[in-house]
From TrEMBL, chain A:
Keyword rRNA-binding carried by entry: no
Species this chain originates from: Candidatus Chloroploca asiatica
Cytochrome c assembly protein domain sequence ranges: 29-160
Protein name: Heme exporter protein C
Pfam families: Cytochrom_C_asm
TrEMBL record, chain B:
Record-linked InterPro entries: Put_ccm
Full protein name: CcmD family protein
Organism listed in the record: Candidatus Chloroploca asiatica
Region (Disordered): 47-76
TM stretches of this protein: 12-32
């Protein structure tokens, strides 16, 4: 009975994820400024979420193994770490696709990209460690300890590091509640860094209530320069014209101008702000998170069972794992 | 048919969806089959273990000759 229910559950995961894929492409509306590229959020964020969950589960089972010394806990710890690595890689790849469309480049060592790369390296080292130790007991113990230490870095690398970095193009302020893109306040003539672009505020010109900034924006690598003219409405206290950065879909906004018109707050404006305000998008997003989580647990159980079988077969045949 | 026709604005979204669905279908079938094979293997291993166990768990008895052939002590 339990097995039949599990089979039905697995079939449901298949249908659920197929449904999420169809809705992602055909039903949810396009994002303002991002077009179809923005749909990737339905895959990108849930895979990143599942990777955090997987690493947490790996750490829990590692702790349980060190406590109880039950080999099954080690199987689950490894299976969860492998799942976490796989989903982190998926989040990285989907992020790179988004990056190519929106930033114009697959990889530019943005703080978010760098931190996820470091995370991948940390868990790749766990697998290297396991494969380097022949003694089974020692391998299990060391990898459990390593896994616990590795998990300590996860919250920092995924949640903290990218948020404390001033210059990130990752659209935290679009998709993640509580995140802010602070921008940079420049005096006229000064140079600063916004995302991965050098900017220089050349002038601020007032015409009635409208203040227009003349900003020279350098491409990453300083290969070329463009002059952009964002503006700010003093009467309403809101941004007016927001020109796009050359070659990408992010805009340069003049968010504030000081009363003496000598300095202005410049910021990257990510298109698609409020993307999850749309009900269909929000529900599809939540459905995707649920689907990926269920898929992960299926994979976790399957992989742990396979590791257990591998061990049982090796024991029977007198071989080594 | 021109391959670039697949990348036209109206069609590209369906092509992308078809690719994503095919990838998912492939992954699902792969997982399903491995799952089924693992179940079969687990069952076989358990059966094998049960076949081995009856011999070791069978009631054991030793017969000791004490003084004469009429008196026997049976230990279970």
């Amino acid at each position: 009975m339990v097995q039949q229910m599990a089979q039905v559950g697995k079939l449901l995961i298949g249908l659920w994820m197929a449904g999420v894929t169809i809705v992602m492409f055909l039903v949810i509306p396009q994002y303002e400024g991002l077009g179809n590229a923005g749909r990737i959020i339905i895959m990108h964020v849930p895979t990143a979420w599942v990777s955090v969950l997987a690493f947490a589960i790996s750490a829990i089972f590692s702790g349980l193994y060190l406590w109880k010394r039950n080999p099954t806990y080690d199987d689950y710890a490894v299976a969860a770490a492998e799942g976490g690595f796989l989903f982190t890689a998926l989040a990285t790849v989907t992020g790179m696709i988004f990056s190519q469309v929106v930033w114009g480049i697959y990889w530019n060592w943005d703080p978010r990209q760098t931190s996820i790369f470091v995370l991948l390296l940390i868990y790749a080292a766990l697998f290297a460690l396991r494969s380097a130790i022949d003694d089974v007991q020692r391998r299990r113990q060391l990898s459990a300890v390593y896994s616990l230490f590795a998990f300590v870095t996860v919250p920092f690398l995924i949640f903290v590091a990218p948020r404390i970095a001033d210059s990130t193009l990752h659209p935290n302020c679009v998709f993640i509640q509580g995140s802010t893109c602070d921008g940079i306040t420049l005096d006229v003539g000064k140079i600063g860094l916004l995302g991965d672009r050098k900017i220089q505020l050349i002038a601020l010109e007032r015409e009635g209530d409208l203040v227009t900034a003349e900003v020279i924006v350098s491409e990453p690598g300083l290969s070329s320069e463009t002059t952009l003219r964002p503006s700010f409405n003093l009467a309403t206290g809101t941004m007016a014209d927001r020109p796009e950065f050359p070659g990408v879909r992010y805009q340069l906004g003049l968010e504030y101008v000081d009363p003496s018109i000598t300095s202005g707050l410049l910021n990257i404006e990510a298109p698609g702000t409020g993307v999850l305000d749309n009900r269909i998008t929000l529900f599809t997003f939540l459905a995707s998170i649920a689907g990926f989580t269920a898929l992960f647990f299926w994979m976790l159980n399957l992989r742990a069972n396979l590791l257990g079988l591998q061990w049982a077969l090796a024991q029977r045949d007198g071989g080594r794992v | 048919m021109n391959p670039e026709a697949f990348l036209e604005a109206g069609i590209a979204i369906y092509v992308a969806m078809a690719v994503a669905l095919s990838v998912w279908l492939g992954i699902f079938v792969y997982l399903w089959r491995i799952d089924a094979q693992a179940r079969v293997l687990k069952r076989e291993l358990e059966r094998e273990r049960q076949r081995e166990q009856p011999a070791s768990r069978a009631p054991r008895a030793t017969v000791k000759r004490v003084s004469s052939p009429e008196h026997e002590i049976v230990e279970k």
